[in-house]
Design a protein that fits this description.
Rossmann fold; 4 helices; about 35% helix; globular
Length: about 170
């Protein structure tokens, strides 16, 4: 029997910069939900400040990496979620940018060059409204947390179903 798939769910951001903490909030919600419905064995829940080296270290050697991060969009709709998926190609450039100095795109390209990409990468980018100092999410972004936690659980279930059936 093969070992369980290694899955990483990474909440990126800074919980002390308001909506930039949405990734951390989704991870906290997944941990709460996990008391009732545990995630599959081999699933890592981790938070990260967005540093490319730390991101790469968290998703290295994974079958699936799911990243939840805040994003800036122009024009923006706070709480709107963008889903980006990367298999073997390049990460599509969305109409949003990371709320960090170096974006996720740079981490992806660095990981690609170093041969440290996950087998499958899914990014949920949440448009934020407030990124000033402070804690707590804006109402629109807070409303996205529960649906995002469910979307991440669904992502993991789809991945496991695909792995069981065998990849085409």
């Amino acid at each position: 029997m093969s070992p369980p798939a290694r899955i990483a769910v990474i909440g990126v951001g800074n919980e002390f910069r308001r909506d930039d903490g949405v990734g951390w909030a989704v991870l906290a919600r997944l941990r709460e939900r996990g008391r009732e419905r545990p995630l599959p064995p081999g699933t890592l829940l981790a938070t990260c400040d967005g540093d490319p080296a730390r991101l790469i270290g968290l998703w290295e050697d994974t079958d699936l990496a799911v990243v939840v991060d805040a994003a800036h969009a122009h024009p923006g709709t706070p709480g709107r979620v963008h889903r980006l998926e990367l298999g073997s190609g390049r990460l599509a450039q969305p109409s949003t940018t990371s709320s960090h100095g170096l974006g996720l795109g740079e981490a992806v390209e660095l990981a690609r060059v170093l041969g440290m990409m996950p087998d499958h990468l899914v990014v949920y980018a949440v448009e934020g409204a407030e990124t000033g100092l402070g804690t707590g999410l804006s109402p629109a972004v807070a409303a996205a947390v529960e649906p995002l936690a469910q979307a991440v659980e669904d992502e993991i279930a789809r991945h496991r179903d695909t792995a069981v059936r065998g990849r085409p």
